[in-house]
Amino acid sequence: MNVLVVGATGFVGGAVARHLATRGHTVTGLARSGEAAARLTAQGITPVAGDLPGPPGGRSEPSGDFSGPSGDEPGGLSGVSGTGQEERGRFEAVLAAAGRADAVIFAAQPDPGTEERAVAGLLDALAGTGKTFVFTSGTGVLIQRMGGAWSEDSFGEDDPFTVEPLAARRLGVERSVRAAAERQVRSLVIRPGLIWGPGDHGHLSMIYGSVAATGAACYVGEGLNTYSNVHIDDVVRLFALALEKGAAGALYHAVAGEIPNRWIAEAVADDLGCGTRTLTPEEAAGVWGDMGGLILAGSSRCRAPRTRGELGWTPAHTDMLTMIGEPRLRNLADRPT
Prior knowledge:
By secondary structure, the chain is of the alpha/beta class. The protein has one domain (2-332): NAD(P)-binding Rossmann-like Domain (Rossmann fold, 3-Layer(aba) Sandwich). It has helices at residues 11-22, 34-42, 84-100, 112-126, 168-179, 203-214, 232-245, 261-272, 281-297, 305-311, 327-332; strands at residues 2-6, 26-31, 46-49, 103-106, 132-136, 144-145, 186-192, 194-196, 216-220, 229-231, 251-254, 275-279, 298-299. Strands 3-2-1-4-5-7-11 form a seven-stranded parallel sheet, with helices on both faces. The radius of gyration is 20 Å and the shape is globular. This is Nucleoside-diphosphate-sugar epimerase.
């Protein structure tokens, strides 16, 4: 299958692109610079020069959205300067590449407005073709503001929930993707949980980093809140299965385990020989920033019954604490390895 990956220079998109290439797919990836193109080429991925559509009139937009896959990065897709005509031309190159592909995977994490425009443009380009479009969302759309408290709520793929306002735009994109199945697009959504593994930037990294900032491994409130997690290797296997067997209009969860944040902090403290510390939400914002503090105080528990049943996906990695003690994590705490 000829697959275009939008976000192939990011954490999730890059891992997905490399995995698909090893499975015999012909993979192309969006590159907005010569440097990005060289990196993709070195990994056996054919680069496509282009970019996503910028804001109307060239105005900048705040990201302000935490609903993407935790640990991902923008993937080198936003912030290109140029005239409106130049920007349109760069996105038209992406649309042309999508037209040549059998499937498009959108794994970028740009600002919400760019995401809305890009996804709408790609779906319009694919309408009536029967081609596959996979949108990478995240279980952050399910987040609850808990202040570090435990939540009994755990959501399956199509369970109803109350959306946090900051995630409303991402949920709207999800719905537009699923609705495109009615326009003869084999469109589907994958929501990874908190992603861990080599190169991640998730909760473990943040809690190790809190030691450098405060001298202790930190959590918020009681620290009983939890965010369902998944290893990057299991994520990429799910993408491959979704390409092969996913149903048009479907939503799939990539989640494998969960652990309260206080337990993570205690494991980090044991590794570094330091103490733990509880933070108020205000203190958490000072340590991790407003968005990081919100995420570390929230709960996003979910399950994957449809994903496991329809696709036969079974995660191989379920214990995020196996990463405790990795040198790259210890370095975040300014501790010797």
